[in-house]
């Protein structure tokens, strides 16, 4: 604890964002380049070294937060990077994309703004790359055992890196043409520039991990045949089966799933396309769904110069302060949060009929209406109460010639045939069933991440990848694994 009075004398200060008018014209990350380093040491000083760090409990990775806060405060970046990477394979991903449940569990957050843990994490990760601390760590010797990892999202990459470093020969199979899964084609460039992902992939290649892109297991490669070629298989395909909105007019042209829309915008940034076939330019866009995916669609539509963009959230507008009775500390509270995309939409007034940040709260879609050509032209909605029951007399129509559905995901996609070919059992909700050792009903096939847990956060995905790697390593060696297992398959976030 470098400054025992830091939390009393230093106010919370976050990584500043670039001006809205500037960042809405490009796809670069929204934050001021280099804006963290001038403030981060003092922000790390705010850590209380509280003795019982609930931030550890709130983070499924078990990040050693007070330790690397102290090291950053002293500007010992090498030691901070070592402590951070001891529990997290990809801190530059979580430092940009995680909603930071650790900050909700910060003891300081009981009655003051929490320590900016997420910003400190990101600063350490970026400094590690800048100073050359993130070197490849290939194994000293090979075990002679082979593992196939299906899926290259955060779970698959974390599992692959851990198993490679343990000495196993690992091949990652990815159905897209580039590695990264949701981080590659689901997360917009303005939230995380893809060079962060490329660096990690190159690090893993240098360590010995092999990558097989443009390969859909179940179609391009028979899953049962793949299983016979490897000593173990890890399924980390994510929860890619999107939820539908079964209301009248859903069949109209111009209504798309978020994950049909976002990948095309990312491909424009990758240079694959000059213009997205589903560009929002000049269109009146309505986004159905109030979560992070909806906000990603919002920021993307703003950059594509939509005529208007409105986001519908079925939940009532949350308050600015924690509800101590229903969401007591240290649980993660549902608060009114202003993402970069909402800040942009509010400043640019993209949704005249909505609140200041483009969201309409407590709004439920009734039906869509179209024109004589079968294209969507309007969305009928109604206000709902806390029980999601329609409020009489609140119906209205929004102009919409493009609708994006961002309603979440229910489990792994079964259309590729992989699950059937492997003969895997499923849970009633559609996720892959597994036991306490992450193994499926096929003992050499393991399941991890959203494919088995269900839709979750990136920090849980990485924790799942690290934990399943320990389980696979133990299975392959027939003894105890030296790899860390931060969570079990049945662990869940802290709730009331």
Automatic annotation (TrEMBL):
The keyword Nucleus does not apply. Pathway: Amino-acid biosynthesis. PROSITE patterns: 4FE4S_FER_2 (PS51379). InterPro entries: 4Fe4S_Fe-S-bd, DPD_II, FAD/NAD-bd_sf, FAD/NAD-binding_dom, Glut_synth_ssu1, Glutamate_Synthase, Helical_ferredxn. Residues 36-69 form the 4Fe-4S ferredoxin-type domain. Keywords: Amino-acid biosynthesis, Glutamate biosynthesis, Oxidoreductase. Pfam families: Fer4_20, Pyr_redox_2. Coiled coil: none annotated. SUPFAM superfamilies: alpha-helical ferredoxin, Nucleotide-binding domain. It comes from the Bacteria. This is Glutamate synthase subunit beta. It comes from Streptomyces cellulosae.
């Amino acid at each position: 604890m470098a400054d025992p009075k830091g939390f009393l004398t230093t106010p919370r200060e976050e990584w500043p964002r670039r001006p809205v008018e500037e960042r809405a014209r490009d796809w670069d990350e929204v934050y001021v380049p280099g804006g963290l380093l001038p403030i981060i040491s003092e922000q790390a000083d705010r850590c209380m070294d509280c003795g019982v760090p609930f931030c550890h409990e709130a983070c499924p990775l078990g990040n050693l937060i007070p330790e690397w806060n102290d090291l950053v405060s002293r500007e010992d970046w090498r030691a901070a990077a070592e402590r951070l990477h001891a529990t997290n394979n990809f801190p530059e991903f979580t430092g940009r994309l995680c909603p930071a449940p650790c900050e909700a569990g910060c003891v300081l957050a009981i009655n003051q703004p929490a320590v900016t843990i997420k910003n400190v994490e990101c600063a350490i990760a970026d400094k590690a790359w800048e100073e050359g601390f993130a070197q490849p760590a290939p194994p000293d010797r090979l075990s002679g055992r082979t593992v196939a990892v299906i899926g290259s999202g955060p779970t698959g990459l974390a599992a692959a890196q851990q198993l490679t470093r343990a000495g196993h020969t690992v091949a990652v199979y990815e159905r897209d043409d580039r590695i990264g899964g949701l981080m590659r084609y689901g997360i917009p460039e303005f939230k995380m520039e893809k060079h962060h992902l490329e660096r990690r992939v190159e690090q893993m290649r240098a360590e010995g991990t092999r990558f097989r892109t443009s390969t859909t297991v179940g179609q391009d490669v028979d899953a049962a045949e793949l299983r016979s070629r490897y000593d173990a298989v890890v399924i980390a395909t994510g929860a890619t089966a999107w939820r539908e909105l079964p209301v009248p007019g859903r069949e109209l042209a111009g209504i798309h799933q978020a994950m049909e829309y976002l990948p095309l915008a990312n491909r424009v940034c990758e240079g694959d396309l000059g213009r997205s076939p589903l560009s929002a330019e000049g269109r009146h866009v309505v986004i159905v769904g109030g979560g992070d995916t909806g906000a990603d669609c919002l920021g993307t539509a703003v950059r594509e110069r939509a005529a208007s963009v409105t986001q519908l959230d079925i939940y009532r507008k949350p308050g600015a302060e924690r509800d101590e009775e229903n969401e007591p500390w240290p649980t993660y509270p549902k608060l009114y949060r202003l993402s970069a995309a909402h800040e942009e939409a509010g400043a640019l007034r993209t949704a005249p009929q909505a609140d200041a940040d483009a969201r309409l709260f407590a709004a439920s879609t009734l039906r869509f209406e179209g024109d004589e050509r079968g294209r969507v032209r309007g969305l009928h909605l109604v206000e709902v109460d806390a029980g999601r029951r329609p409020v009489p007399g609140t119906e209205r129509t929004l102009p919409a010639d493009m609708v994006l559905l961002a309603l979440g995901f229910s489990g792994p996609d079964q259309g590729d045939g992989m699950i059937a070919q492997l003969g895997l059992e499923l849970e009633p909700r559609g996720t892959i069933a597994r036991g306490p050792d992450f193994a499926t009903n096929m003992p050499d096939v393991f399941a991890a991440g959203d494919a088995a847990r269900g839709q979750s956060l990136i920090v849980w995905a990485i924790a799942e990848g690290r934990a399943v790697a320990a389980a696979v390593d133990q299975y392959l060696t027939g003894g105890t694994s030296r790899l860390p297992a931060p969570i079990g398959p049945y662990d869940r976030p802290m709730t009331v």
